[in-house]
Each structure stands twice: as structure tokens, then as C-alpha cells.
């Protein structure tokens, strides 16, 4: 019984310690941002790795999500004779929720896990120690560019997801199911507000960008430097980012659209 | 915390281990004659534990300028940890590490980084940056820490690569190199900034006889040609003893033996004898501690 | 070096595509967009009450879409809503005495304008005005009137 309590206390303490290390890393990365000005090449390489390489999966997913929304929305709305509101439904779900959230989940799976594995392997093969021994701060040189790259790539990818999704919904709703073309757009434009919906969606995806890349980088940086440790860290990175994104989404939604 | 250990207060010329437990005393003859000014790295009363296991329990070490000092011991005795303590990547629980007269663990981050530009370290795996070519890897510390023009960097890099015999491999990526070549490139990178000392972490592990011979020659040549100080951590006894000026044998968190290779070889210690000659059984038993055989089988 | 250049081009294209997507969301999806139908001719109609008719709502004739609502204004002298319609150029044989009605698609659906052809020999041209209109049916008003008449019946 006492053992159990002691065990509980130990793991609780370890969790708080990890949390502290994670936030120190975040501070370190933010502190490293100014040093990136002198080395823009490092940043473009990371936007390429995180952003450009995720374009295909994000746009294809966006297209299908939009098409499903068009299909499902049509069946529900047409029962109320309100099929013309399909555009609103598709666009609102995408711009407010599905765009930022699904993009963040996809990026966590596609780019986040790759970041964790990359950093974990650099640690396991002593590349990070090697940099330290060359008197180069690995947080500044290796982690910060990846962090900023993820931060920039995420809203861009989310915007692509939403835009392609709206087109997918349009294709199914107007092209296949015969919803009126003008009504689809007019209702959408009447109900979707630039600030309320589009800008808030961008803010959401910015926050998700920070969280997903941060978790991925921290898990890699904190991984046990063995092949087993890296593979565990990769799994943890995806699980933690998914939970953090969904939990934060609720908080952000309550803050933005709550009143 | 480590102050509980009486060892931490003893002067350095004392024997590394208690004779009652570990066999014969370590030779300390030449030690007394050495002058302090020649000592580059001075370790006193070092205590370090990780995950509740005490890795060092009062270690005293001196590494003299211009010599190749070897630190040997069985696997898992924390030889690599010792290098990380010297370079300030880890913090000891007690004791001090002085490099060139400065207490490494009392330095600020900036001072520590400045000190590290004067230390090179060769990691077990080479630790080359996998997304850069051989040339860029060697150029990396120069580009980070100097404002030299690219033409100058090119000359320096080619010179360093020539010294390790890999000038022709400059355009290869680290993944295309053999283990021995990767270590030689890493060596070129470690000396790129002309450091005052180089630490070698298990340089001979997993090498075929030819690349082992190349590395042995390189370590000795670099040390003598560039007036370096070298610390070689290894458990390959013969190869290490062949180039070292001075040996330390560490086990169970203490210094078990010290001296020139000849002195250590002649030591009257069953343990040191077993380690130096690789005997399967001795003070370190072949069998992992277990219950009696007949009881295990019949029970 | 070639690869480095390729990466930079790809990143540039990526950022441009992102801004295009954001621009699309802002202009086409949200209320910032004000793109209008430009081909076809324009006629106007006055209503007492347009309900919740929106710009770009469809204009239909016998259930077929012939154009859309281009703009909605308010006449501050007559207190009427002025709706301008953009009719497709193909339908250039709509009589001048055509009747414009605001209907609701389904119970909760969008409101649109339905045109019922008149009997005149003259056809509508650009800038004409439809004289005969009927306002939108506002659900609350209808229910109110219904209850009111029921109450009157009960009082008799």
C-alpha cells in the first residue's frame, strides 16, 4: 500500500519534471528565434519538410472530407427542405473546425512523427552531443528552425484543407446532387463571417502548429537514446499531439464562439 | 552528498582502490615526480550517480599536457560518462573537474562553450550530421565559430581531410562511409578548430584490423604533430596500451590501477591481471551470481 | 546546390498556394466576397417586405432558374425594398407585366424570387421595373393572422 503511494508520487513527480523540461525547451526555442534571421536557409528546408511534403495528404484528405460533408449535409438538410444551406454547413464545419483540427492531426501523424524520429535518432547517434561538443547549441540550430517551420506551415496547410474541402462539397452538392449553384455560394457568403470564422480558424491552426511541433520536438529531444526509446517517443508524440489538439480545440472554440 | 565518501578528501597520490577488497596496490611511483603545471585536466573526488546507481565514487585523475592518456575498464563502468563530465555535458554530484585551470562546472554557459571550442571529442559512432556531406561536416565548426572566407575554409577543410587520408571522400554523405571512415571524418572535424585536447570515446570498437591500425596511428600522429593532449577511453587493452603514455583502469566507480603501460602490466593485482589479459574467470566471475546449481535443477 | 534551389522554389510555391487558399476562403466563402453576375440584363422590382431574401438568391420562372438577385436596396421615400435582378440573356422574352413573388423553398429553406409570366406583347429590357409584386410571406404574421381570425370566429 505504502509502496503504491510512493510509486504514485514518483511517477507524478516525474510527469511534472517532464512538463518543466518541456516548457524550458519551448522557452529555449523561442529564445532561439532571433538567431534564425542570419540563417533563413535552415527555415526554408524545414518549411519544405513539414509543409510542402504534407500538401498531398492534406489536400486529398480535405477533398474527401468536403465531399462527405456535402453528401451527409445534403441528406440531412433536404429533409427540412433546406438543401440550399449546404454551402453554409460545409464551409462553416471546414473553416471553423475540421480544417484546423484535421490538418493538425494529419500533420502530427505525417510530419510530427518524422520530427520526433529525426531528433530522437540524432540524439541516439550522438549528433546532438556532437554539436554541443562543437560548442553549437542544438536547440538553436536544430530544434528552433523546425519549430518555426511547423508554426508557419500549419495555417497554410489548414487554409488549403478548407479551400479544397469547400470545393469538394461544392462538387458533390452542386455537381452531383443538384443544389442550386448560386444559393450554395450566396448562403455561404451571407453566413460565414471573415473575422468570426476565417480568422478564428487561422488562429486555431497557429495554436495547433505550436503545440504539434513542440510536442514532437520535445518527445524526440527527451527520448531515451536507443532504437526502442525513439520508437516509443514517436508513438507518444502522435498520441499526445492528437489529445492536445482535440482538448485545445474545445477550449479555443469555447473562447471564440462561446458567447 | 558525496562528502560522505572519505575518498573525496584524500590526496591524489593515494592508491586507487582499497587493497583489502580489490587486490594489489596500484603503482604510484612516477606520479609523485610530476609537476602541477603540466596537468591539463585535474579531477578530484568525483562522485556521480545515475538512476540510483553510483557510477563514480571518489575518482581522482590527472591528465598531462601533450600525452596520450588512456582510461580503460570493463563495459558499463562509465568511461563515456567520464568524458561527458570533463566536457561539462553532465554535472557531478560532488568533486571538481578542472580543465586548463578552470572548474568546468562553475563556468557560465558562454564560458563553457568557449572552452569547448578548444576541446574536440570523437564519439563512438562518429556523430556526423547525416544531412551534410563529409566536406560540410568538417567545415561546420569553422563556419559556426569563425568568420573566415569560404576560400580559406576550403583550404582548411581539405588540409584536415588530407591529414586523415580522406580528401578524396569529401563529396560523400555520412551514410556512404564505413564505420572506420566515419570516425576518421569525425576526427578531422574534431581537429578543425585546432583544439588543445581531444577525447576519444571507444575509437576502436567494431573496427576491422586495418582501420583499427589506421586509427591507432592517426591518434598518435595527431597528438605528436599538433602538440595535442589526448584522452582515449577504451576497453581494447592491447591497442590502447600500445599508444598510451599513461593508463588508468577504472572499475566499480574507482581507479583500480594507474601508471605507464609497463607498470600496469607488472601490477601485482589479480583483478588487473585478469582485465589486462582477458582471462574468462578470476576475481570477476564467469557466472552471474545465482543459486546453487543442484538446487536449481532439482527444485 | 540544385536540390537546395528546388527546395526554395517548392517552399515559395507552397506559401503562394496557401495564400491563394486563404484568399479564396476570404473572398469566395466569407461575406467579404461581392462578386456579381455580370452578363445578362438587369430589371428591378419593389416589395413591401422581402423577408430574408439574400443577394445572389435565385430568380426562377416555372421553377427554372433564369437569373439571380444582384442587389437589395431600400427606398427611403416610399419605405419599400428595391431589389435588382440580373436575368440571363437567354431569357429575353419575359413579358413586361410579369408578376414577381417572393417564395420560400420549403418550410425553413432559402427565399427566392419566382416570376409568373404575364400576357403583354412587350418584353422586359435592361433597366425596366416589374410593377406587379407580392411580398414575402412572413411566418409569424401568417400565424398571427390565423390566430386572430380564429379568435374572431370564436367570439361570434
Helices and strands, with pairings:
The complex is a heterotrimer of chains A (259), B (299) and C (156).
Chain A: H1 2-32, H2 40-50, H3 55-79, H4 86-124, H5 127-133, H6 138-176, H7 181-191, H8 194-221, H9 227-257
Helix pairs in contact in A: 1-6, 2-6, 3-4, 3-6, 4-6, 4-7, 4-8, 4-9, 6-8, 8-9
Chain B: H1 19-22, E1 39-50, E2 53-64, E3 68-72, H2 79-86, E4 94-99, E5 102-103, H3 109-116, E6 119-122, H4 134-145, H5 150-163, H6 179-190, E7 197-201, H7 209-225, E8 229-234, H8 237-243, E9 246-251, E10 254-259, H9 261-265, H10 270-277, H11 293-298
Parallel strand pairs in B: 3-8, 3-9, 6-7, 7-8
Antiparallel strand pairs in B: 1-2, 1-4, 4-5, 9-10
Helix pairs in contact in B: 4-5, 4-6, 5-6, 7-8
Chain C: H1 2-29, E1 41-47, E2 58-61, E3 64-75, E4 80-87, E5 99-104, E6 111-116, E7 129-130, E8 132-134, H2 139-155
Descriptive overview:
- Chain A has 259 residues and is mainly α.
- Chain A is built from 9 helices and no strands.
- With 299 residues, chain B is an alpha/beta fold.
- Chain B contains 11 helices and 10 strands.
- Chain B has helices spanning 19-22, 79-86, 109-116, 134-145, 150-163, 179-190, 209-225, 237-243, 261-265, 270-277, 293-298; strands spanning 39-50, 53-64, 68-72, 94-99, 102-103, 119-122, 197-201, 229-234, 246-251, 254-259.
- Chain C is of the alpha/beta class and 156 residues long.
- In chain C, strand 5 and strand 6 (111-116) form a beta hairpin.
- Chain C folds into 2 domains: 1-30; 40-144, no CATH class.
- Chain A binds chain C through residues 41, 44-45, 47-48, 51-52, 55, 80-85, 91, 95, 153, 155-157, 159-160, 162-164, 166, 180, 182-183, 185-194, 197-198, 201-202, and chain C through 4, 7-8, 10-11, 13-15, 17-22, 24-26, 28-33, 54-58, 65, 68, 105-110, 112.
